């Protein structure tokens, strides 16, 4: 009797996973249609591009050059470095000599536990223009980046624009695992969250485009300087202040370089615990979506019964179709060569979800932090 109950539960979980994959495929298809929408070409806005930096990521020089080579009539790029001996300073100083619209601010006073937001607070005060972009330092952009992500802000109802991100051409297994997660799992789930919420109520950190008046309306960066998932909270605060949050059709290129699989898992565990704190019960609902795990258990529990094998194969065919749709829509052709790693990615994702279901400690840029109830941070 107990075995029958287990088999029944596994069947339900396999079917739930298949339904989840279908829905993910549908929301990705909807995004593909939205991406064809052309916003009216507004008069170009003067933009302050604010980039907090700590250390040198792989290929940082090329990433930062891409920020400085925009097809945009008037913009400034301001890098912020907290420590006077940061190795990034030398590279940024070379940019200062080449581009007259680039500035560097360093030796910054710490305002809170979240050093990245603390850095941004200084950069925001030093910036000149009404339209601002908070950008991570480890992304690479094309010359139309500024114009594309700021175009929706011409609509006064839209207060924030954010972007998906992934490594479009991963060269190593760790990078491929990270990119598969973002392409076939994270961004589709982000789109599903948007659908369930009736619109975006949160943002993604690698790029947040907004206006200075919007930041003032939700109380300023001081509201998120001690929080984990500051990007999530910025989007939520903007929404609560009465502004729409939009997802740009622009997909950022976030090169993961030679990251090892353990490094990727450590970062994803931080994200998992952040999502659990911020999304609550929805996080635990993801437990019903790991079809490969439940499928293997079902086949074993039924002694390789033909009906179970057929059900699991059908479910995973849907999974492969959903993954293909995401790779195609988000323009990540480099992931096709890593197709074989998708089952491994599914197993790792289950492990990360399980580990993220409890615990408060996270590792972030060389620091161990503890997430407090409500999402605030303190040193471990």
Automatic annotation (TrEMBL):
Pfam families: Glyco_transf_21. Signal peptide: none annotated. Pathway: Sphingolipid metabolism; Lipid metabolism; sphingolipid metabolism. GO terms for molecular function: ceramide glucosyltransferase activity. One of its GO terms (biological process) is glucosylceramide biosynthetic process. It is a multi-pass membrane protein. Its EC number is 2.4.1.80. The keyword Transmembrane helix applies. It is found in: Membrane. It is an enzyme of class 2 (transferase). GO terms for cellular component: membrane. PANTHER family: CERAMIDE GLUCOSYLTRANSFERASE (PTHR12726). This is Family 2 glycosyl transferase. It comes from Gloeomargarita lithophora Alchichica-D10.
């Amino acid at each position: 009797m107990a075995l029958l109950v287990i088999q029944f539960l596994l069947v339900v979980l396999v079917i739930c996973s298949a339904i989840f994959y279908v829905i993910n495929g549908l929301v990705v298809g909807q995004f593909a249609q939205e991406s064809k929408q052309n916003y009216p070409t507004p008069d170009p806005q003067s933009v302050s591009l604010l980039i907090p930096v700590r250390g040198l990521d792989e290929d940082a020089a090329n990433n930062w050059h891409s920020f400085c080579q925009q097809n945009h009539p008037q913009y400034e790029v301001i890098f912020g470095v907290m420590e006077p001996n940061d190795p990034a300073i030398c590279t940024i100083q070379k940019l200062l000599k080449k581009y007259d619209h680039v500035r560097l601010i360093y030796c910054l006073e710490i305002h809170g536990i979240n050093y990245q937001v603390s850095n941004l607070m200084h950069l925001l005060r030093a910036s000149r223009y009404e339209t601002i972009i908070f950008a991570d330092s480890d992304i690479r952009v094309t010359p139309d980046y500024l114009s594309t992500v700021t175009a929706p802000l011409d609509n006064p109802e839209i207060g924030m624009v954010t972007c998906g991100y992934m490594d479009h051409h991963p060269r190593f297994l760790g990078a491929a695992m990270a990119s598969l997660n973002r392409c076939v799992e994270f961004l589709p789930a982000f789109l599903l969250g948007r659908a369930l919420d009736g619109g975006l109520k949160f943002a993604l950190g690698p790029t947040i485009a907004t206006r200075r008046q919007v930041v003032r309306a939700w109380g300023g960066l001081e509201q998120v300087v001690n929080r984990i998932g500051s990007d999530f909270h910025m989007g939520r605060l903007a929404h609560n202040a009465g502004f729409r949050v939009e997802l740009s059709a622009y997909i950022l290129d976030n090169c993961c370089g030679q990251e090892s699989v353990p490094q990727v898992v450590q970062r994803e565990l931080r994200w998992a615990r952040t999502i659990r704190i911020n999304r609550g019960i929805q996080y635990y609902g993801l437990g019903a979506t790991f079809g490969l795990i439940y499928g293997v258990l079902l086949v074993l529990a039924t002694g390789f019964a033909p009906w179970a094998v057929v059900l699991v194969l059908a479910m995973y065919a849907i999974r492969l179709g959903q993954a293909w749709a995401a790779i195609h829509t988000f323009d990540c052709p480099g992931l096709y060569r890593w197709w074989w790693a998708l089952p491994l990615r599914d197993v790792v994702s289950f492990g990360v979800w399980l580990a993220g279901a409890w615990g408060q400690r996270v590792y972030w840029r060389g620091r161990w932090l503890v997430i407090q109830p409500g999402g605030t941070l303190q040193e471990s």
